[in-house]
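Hey all, sorry for the wall of text incoming. These are the two entities for the joint prediction.
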Amino acid sequence: MIAETGHFALALALMVALVQSALPILGAARRDVVWMRSAEVTSLAQAGLIAIAFGALMHAFVTSDFSIINVFENSHSAKPMIYKVSATWGSHEGSLLLWVLILSLFGAGVSWAGGNLPDGLKARTLSVQAWITVGFLSFMLFTSNPFERMSFIPANGNDLNPLLQDIGLALHPPLLYVGYVGFSIVFSFAVAALIEGHVDPAWARWVRPWTLAAWVSLTGGIALGSWWAYYELGWGGWWFWDPVENVSFMPWLLGTALLHSAIVTEKRDTFKSWTILLAILTFSLSLFGTFIVRSGLLTSVHAFAVDPERGIYILGLLGASIGGALTLFAWRAPQLEPGGIFAPVSRETGLMLNNLLLATATATVLLGTVYPLILEALTGEKISVGPPYFAMTFTPLMVPLILAMGIGPHLSWKRADLRGVLQRVKWSIAISVLVVAIILWRDFGGPVMAAIGIGIAIWLLLATLADFAARIRFWDDVRGSFARVRRLPRATFGMVLAHTGLAVAILGFTGSSLWKTETVVFVQPGDQIEIAGFDVTFDGVTEVPGPNYIARQGALTVDLNGRNVEVLRPERRYYPVADTLTTESAIRHTLHGDLYASLVEPQGEVDEGTWTLRILYEPLINCIWIGSVMLVFGGIVSLTDRRLRIGAPKRKVQLSVPAE
Amino acid sequence: MKRIWAFLPLLMIVVLGGFLGWGLNPNRDPSEIPSALVGKPLPEMVLPALAGIDNAGFVPADIAMHDLALVNVFASWCVPCRAEHGPLSELAAREGLALYGLNYRDQQADAVDWLNELGNPYLGIGHDEAGRAGIEWGISGVPETFILVRGTIVHRHVGPLVGEAATRPFLDALQKARMR
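and here's what came out:
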């Protein structure tokens, strides 16, 4: 009965969304305030109804109601409660429901928090948001009903994939989705602005917090997914340039560009059509990601069950929303009045460079992701594009971006004094060049790129801190600088935190990918392996029962300089219900690097008691996670900026002077 | 001019959408690894012998002399190759097949040690230190095993020949190759 209520609530939500997609926008055209304000009620009602449906589905999972196909296929009564809850969004149908829930929550958020928005913009934005909701709700109701019942009731369920029974992965989709879907509201704002034919700094200021919130969430989601892959998949990598990773990374790259171009629109009233285009494209890439994951178009480890009919429906949705928005853009963008002018050396130029490089990087990733498909369509040849392509195209774009990122915040708007700025960063330049020279001279091994990677990370770190010091005039007046710290806007703290966070993460990217050492060996109890200065002894394997699995746990004694520092216990888990084996790696974390071990029972003609042991040493890898946390906190701190909390000023009153 | 620029994003999306629509064709299986070489002879190149072992290297013509031959791509650093080595040697001996080896991206000394340790069932071994032959042959990883009828590739198996699931299709292909 509860499931049917959920299904009914979804159908009602579709009706409400249909009303919201027409009434407010018509009201805005007719200047009818009552029609326009109807969106405030319908958006809340819609979110409430979808939340009821989501609650009903979660209830079915928590109570293990196996009469529902979705629950039967993705849950099991012996599963720990937290994974029963997270199984709600573990399947195609459930995750789609979560998608729509977040979509409607963002709509409700705008109507609840957007008190200072002009009626017209708000009404149009919420109508556009409702168009997207209608598209996805109908997709769900017609092709992927999460509440479908079965004719008989099975005794137990099929379990969730044991690989996915992990706390990191339980939280990864919701965060990623808040990021993905959060860009929808920015898209709606952009389309609404195009319909109005008017973009001004106030518009950019309204859009920025939403962009920032989505970006923070997406950053957290991607980092969490990467962390999960690192310790769960058992081979010590954290990024594979897999198509599904790429489709989450592209909105992040373009969203980052949008975050920066919106600053220019807000502060300098320029880059308008570019910001609008970025807003449309960022969400388009989120939609593209949803399409890729659910259509089975490309091979990936992440794909959901494939159904071509669903693929065609989503492609139609994509065509209507992206095609529609870009047609509107082509029609209206040339009419947007250009804004302020700026000198070749100015913060505007710096941010333009940032945007061009990020957009090019996004295009590179997109090309790498769809190239196999394009080649197959044109020539029938099948290839796959792997990490070497991305290392050769993506990394070279990042180096100038990071170099410019160090300088950018020092530049002033309109026209900057390049000589003065270089004066301020001369020590940062000197130290980072010195670091590169030392790494090359001491020859730590690894390619030259490693030295460059560490060098640009140090540069970014120092140059950002130099900018912070200059803002509080630390070098001129140390005592007064503490008072100035408190008066700095929080957005500045956010920027410093995020930029230094990226610098720290780059240390991790570079160290763990270019200085990694790895061995794969057969071991028997008593065998000793030497890696990166550690002596690792394999003591054998014991059987340990778990709640819904049986683990075979290895013991590895780790000695450093003859002293025992750790016993690593990697596991091989067998889940009887799903009949699946998983690898639980064991990791010794230090700031210097991770010692990472995983065990697999060997196949074929090898003696009993022999195991395949994989040991890696990944220098600096924890910097990736520390840097990601700093990026996320940078975004959150920036979000609490007074300017965004208090709300934007009213739009300039446009006085219309009669021509006579 | 500005008008034309504004249409550019739309144009790009339409082209991309076209490809995506094509990709949805239900008869398409994106996870299938194609064998560009099936039905063709091996690419013409000389594969030198490993130093420190008796086996000669080979050229495609050597393999074409046999009615039925296997070429196994292996490397001493490859753990699945080690697992596969025993069953594959047995299979070749049992069925009386000409088994050639392509030693892929390996150090000579390591490869020789490996063969001395595990046994050497190969009629000839070509050493592909730089991975040049690997590129010509379109190898996606080690191990891989090719079935050749009078020098023409008729089947390509990716991964170790260990366990029923992997061996069954390979034996079927071998059976079919005998009929030719």
